[in-house]
Design goal:
It contains five helices and seven strands. A five-stranded mixed sheet has the order 3-2-1-6-7, covered by helices on one side. A two-stranded antiparallel sheet has the order 4-5. Helices cover about 40% and strands about 15% of the residues. The protein has a domain at about 60-150 and about 185-195. By secondary structure, the protein is α/β, with parallel strands linked by helices. The protein is elongated, with a radius of gyration of 28 Å.
Length: about 200
């Protein structure tokens, strides 16, 4: 009697590949690739040529010059300053609470619902940094400057609207941003000015 050899059937792997592809798509679509690093910055809108010419004529009193040198020392108007003093100095410069003539000049603007409000619209912070300075120092200074604007906006919101800035309506937040516009200019120090 002849014996028949049975062949072992091969497994069809096409359906396995389809399942793997579907699972991959599922995890890509539903999963999050949340990145916790980086800097959140809103870029300024494009500026016209006439606005650039106007900005070139900024008075000296309206500019706060901050520089980060090669050795990570921070200077404000060529005077060394610790990082812990940056926020306080920036707040006084931006707000000019006593309307001093060596700080940014105040301009009266009309805010809907609040009337005429004095604001330092021309205050510009000029941040210059050396390529040899550390990224951490640069980020720390930039964070302190941004925090100065945030604190001024929040204080103004609490004073005028009796609510924190974050809880205000979009119109109210826009009004406060008009009073305290974020104006930070950033550029690299020339090679011969680093130290």
């Amino acid at each position: 009697m002849a014996r028949f050899k049975r062949e072992i059937p091969s497994i069809n792997s096409t359906s396995s590949a389809d399942v793997a592809f579907i699972l991959l798509l599922f995890f890509l679509i539903t999963g999050s690739l949340d990145s916790k690093s980086g800097i959140y910055r809103r870029l300024a809108p494009a500026v016209s040529e006439t606005a650039i010419k106007k900005k070139n004529l900024i008075e000296e009193r309206n500019i706060l010059s901050i520089s980060i040198r090669d050795d990570n020392t921070i200077y404000i108007k060529d005077e060394p300053m610790p990082l812990s003093e940056i926020r306080k100095t920036a707040k006084v410069f931006i707000d000019n609470p006593d309307n001093k003539d060596f700080l940014p000049q105040k301009t009266t603007i009309d805010i809907p619902g609040l009337g005429s409000v004095p604001a330092s619209l021309d205050a510009v912070i000029n941040l210059e940094f050396s390529r040899k300075s550390t990224y951490q120092t640069y980020i720390s200074v930039l964070s302190e400057l941004t925090a100065a604007y945030d604190e001024l906006r929040n204080e103004w919101a609490l004073d005028k609207f009796r609510k924190p800035f974050i809880d205000l309506s979009e119109e109210q937040q826009t009004a406060i941003r008009d009073v305290y516009p974020l104006q930070i200019s950033e550029k690299e120090l020339p090679e011969d000015n680093h130290e």
